[in-house]
Every structure is written in C-alpha cells, then in structure tokens.
Fold this protein.
Amino acid sequence: MPVAIITGASKGLGRALAEALAARGWDLVLDARTAEVLKETVAALAGHGARVTALPGDVTDPAHRSELVAAAWKLGGVDLLVNNASALGAEPLARLEGLPLDGLRRALEVNVVAALGLVQEALPLLWASEAGTVITVSSDAAAEAYETWGGYGASKAALDHLAAVLGEEEPRLRVWAVDPGDMATDLYAAAVPDDGDPRPEPASVVPAFLRLLDERPASGRYGAPSLLEGR
C-alpha cells in the first residue's frame, strides 16, 4: 500500500485528508501537537483497515521529523508528504505594526523551515517511490494582501516559493502547493474569532487533493476551488 506522512493531522484538513486516504487503502503516519486529539483521529480511521502510526510532537523539532520519516520507512517508504501543520504568528491576527516578532518567527519556523526540514528528511524515500509527491498547504493570503494576514501570508508565500523551486530541482517528483480556499477550521477561528460567517467544512475540499493524486499534473500551485469546478 502507498504510504503518506501528514502533519497537522489531528483535525481540520489534515484529518479529513487522512480519512480520505485511509478509505483508499493508504497507510499513514500522522503528526499533531496534541496527543489526545490525535488518538481520536486514529480511532476514527480504524474502520478502514489502514495501518496508522500516530506520533504527537512539534514539527520544528528535528528529532520528531526524523521519527516521522522512520515510521514511514517501517510501513514501506514515503509516497506522499503533506506539509499541513501551520502557525498563524498571532492569535487573533494582528496588523503588521503590532505583530509580535516572536510570533512571526514561530510562523516561519513551523510553516517554512520545518516543512523544508521534513522534505529534506524524506527525500531519499520519496526518490525511491514510483510516485513520490510533496503537497504543501498554501493559502490565498500567500498571493493576496489582506489586512492583518501579513505575517501568516508572508510565511505561506515563502512556502509557495520553496515548493516551486523544489518542483524544478526534483523533476522526478510531483510538488504541489495547494490553496484550499476558505474552510471552517480551528485555525481560522483562532485567526479571526469575530467572524461568524459560515464556511465550507474541510472535507468538502478533499476531492481537489484526490484529483491531483489521481491525475498527477505538473508540479505547481493549484487552487482547490478551481480543481473542484473542473471535476
């Protein structure tokens, strides 16, 4: 069975994607910072018969990243790496004039440095796969200027660029930066707690990710809404 590593997999998009892949027969290595919530995710996947290794930890810890890749190796390798774990930089979001610099450093460390570190750790196994794939979860804030989204958007823009360069440097792999669009997630609620407008559930955008895996287009940046419209 193919093997995927998914970070930030205890809830939201990470969990929804894990459920979809498990239903397709993928074996999974899942990461999240909160052990109890991660256990709940594993329990929800039990009915699919997939092998699931759950490793709570912080992706900014090099030892934890090594554990994730080692666990995938034990399951057979790495066919897909999903860098989904994210940090906002400030909760709620703040204008740049008041953005805590330590928060910005944290966003860059989680969203960019740790993501690249995990790719570097997993590359030998991705090279060995017949369909090695890296997905970095982006945001429209990486491409558009929204008030208070500067720190988070800057980190996602940097991640987009790393993904674009990785796609050029690793032509044997597929490297997709995917903007999932608006979703009802805890991350968004923490970012803008006063926004009560309804938003789509993360599971509703998962078919866009599955379409990429099925059709395997060229490396690049993709938006989930356009992928869903083209189904």
About this structure: The mean pLDDT is 96. The two ends are 26 Å apart (CA to CA). The longest strand covers residues 27-32.
